Amino acid sequence: MKVIVTSIFVEDQDKALQFYSETLGFVKKHDVPSGEFRWITIVSPEDQDGTEIVLEPNNNPIAKDYQNRLFEEGIPVTMFGVEDIQKEYERLLQLGVKFTMKPTKMGEISIAVFDDTCGNLIQIIQQ
C-alpha cells in the first residue's frame, strides 16, 4: 500500500494553483470540472508519477474549521522535503513568501514553516 493522493484544503483554488505551481514549483497534473469546483492536483516536478496533492476547496464548514484551527495553533498542514533548506528559504523569501519559522536545526534535521497564502502553514524539511 502507498499514498497516491492527499489533500490540502484551500480558500481559493485559483490562488492556490498559482502559488503552488508558480511560487513553489509544483506541476499541475489534473484540472477538471467537478461540480461547483474543480479537481486540481499537483505533483513534484521530480516525481510526476508520484503522490498527487489535491487543492481541495474548504467550502465544508468542518473543513474550514479544521483549517482555521490548525493555522491559529501554528500547526503545519503538511511537510515538503527539500535538498537545501537555506537555499529554498532564501528563494522563497525573494518571491515574497512569509515565514513563521526560519530554518531551524533540530538534531539531524532542519525545518522552516511558511504561510501558503491560502489558509495553511506548510513546513519544509531538510533531512
Automatic annotation (TrEMBL):
Pfam families: Glyoxalase. This is Enzyme related to lactoylglutathione lyase. InterPro entries: Glyas_Bleomycin-R_OHBP_Dase (IPR029068), Glyas_Fos-R_dOase_dom (IPR004360), VOC_core (IPR037523). Keywords: Lyase. Residues 1-127 form the VOC domain. PANTHER family: GLYOXALASE/BLEOMYCIN RESISTANCE PROTEIN/DIOXYGENASE, GLYOXALASE_BLEOMYCIN RESISTANCE PROTEIN_DIOXYGENASE. GO terms for molecular function: lyase activity. It comes from the Bacteria.
